[in-house]
Amino acid sequence: MTYDFDTPIDRRGTDSQKWQKYAGRDILPLWVADMDFRSPPEVIAALHARVDHGVFGYARPTRSTIDTIVEALHTRYHWSIEPSWLVWLPGLVVGLNITARAFAQPGEAVLCNTPVYPPFLTAPAQQGREVIAVPLTLRPAEGLAAAARRWEIDWDALERAVTPRTRLFFLCNPHNPVAQVFRREELARLAEFCLRYNLLLCSDEIHCDLILDELPHVPTGTLGAEIARRTITLMAPSKTYNLPGLGTSLAIIPDAAVRAQFVRATTGMVAEVNCLGYTACTAAYRHGEPWRRALLAYLRGNREHLLACATHELPGLRVEAPIEATYLAWCNIAALGLKDPVAHFEKHGVGLSDGRHFGAQPGTHLRLNFGCSRATLVEALARMKQAVASR
Ligand SMILES: Cc1ncc(COP(=O)(O)O)c(C=O)c1O
């Protein structure tokens, strides 16, 4: 079966957050992380069938949904989980907030690496918990092509940053926004660090099925029994199969006491997952693999196009290290010397995410979402060329 990722789908005038932001303006939205593609046909068919059933009562996952998740984790990552470890959530951001609230007291701290997906920084603060942000380091700093560079965890800085009041580590793997896949050795070292300081590891793995290169995803929950007992893993079909609006996510929590504490913090506060979300999630994991493979091939094509254009036609914009995963590009635009880079690119018809919200210095970084048709990307890059030329 072939899938059409090429034909642009008009999302203007729909309930799309991504496109509504610029309603009535000629700005191509390459900001928030959803893709402009239709979900796999099997997911759409399953949703049609569920809608035709016509009864939309309070929902609970069926045995088939749970088996699908258990099987998917086993097949994809050799991770054997118990069905009882699953806690369903309407979103991962909810999971980050609940974790901060349930496992740190007011004034206690959450450690994370920056740049990072903004809710890693805002969730603890919203819950009255402190955030300790330790920057990732780009190695080597100078002299080599982007392909040879890598974002690394600064272990010395982590050791200096952790305090007796630090309770949690928030990990993003694969990483938004630097689009990197952490290797087993790095994750093992992080696990050892968390165990040594008695930190609970909250591992956001929402992008784990969007690895573009031949790299394995290693769930932190598979790194050994000891760290598994101290891990809350957050996953969802939402990024991969473009279902974020259906609000269906998972926390996988092996330890019964940790799970009970997590669930207690959700009770009465967190909406339950709805029947359409369960339907879509089950169909995506059960039948969406051919579509996912085709999607990855298409995203690789977009990535190559973007990188070639950045290298040859966008002076002053640098994607600093390989994009190994996600459909997000972390772009260093410091050399452009723009006071308000987002406004500048919007003026030229492209909507990007401001690196400031990810913990970057103002005016230095933008995040670009290339989960769109090639035609949209080509047009956006042409506009960015104009933007770069007319500073
Ligand atoms: C790393 C990461 N976590 C969580 C989310 C959002 O999750 P949700 O929509 O389920 O709250 C995103 C969305 O971009 C993300 O990139």
Rounded mean pLDDT is 97
> How is the CATH topology of the largest domain named?
Aspartate Aminotransferase, domain 2
CATH class value of the largest domain: Alpha Beta
CATH homolog superfamily of the largest domain: Type I PLP-dependent aspartate aminotransferase-like (Major domain)
Q: What small molecules accompany the polymer chains?
A: pyridoxal-5'-phosphate
- As for the number of domains, it is 2
Please write the string of helix (H) and strand (E) elements. Answer: HEHHEHEHEEEHEHEHEEHHHEEHEEEH
What portion of the residues fall into strands of 2 or more residues?
15-25%
Q: Order of strands across the widest beta sheet?
A: 2-10-9-8-7-3-4
Give the overall form.
globular
Tell me the CATH architecture of the largest domain.
3-Layer(aba) Sandwich
Percentage of helical residues? 25-40%
Count, helices: 13
**What structural class do you assign from the helix and strand content?**
alpha/beta
The largest pleated sheet is described as:
7 strands, mixed
Spans of at least 5 consecutive residues with low confidence: none
The radius of gyration over CA amounts to 21 Å
Total strands: 15
Distance between the termini: 46 Å
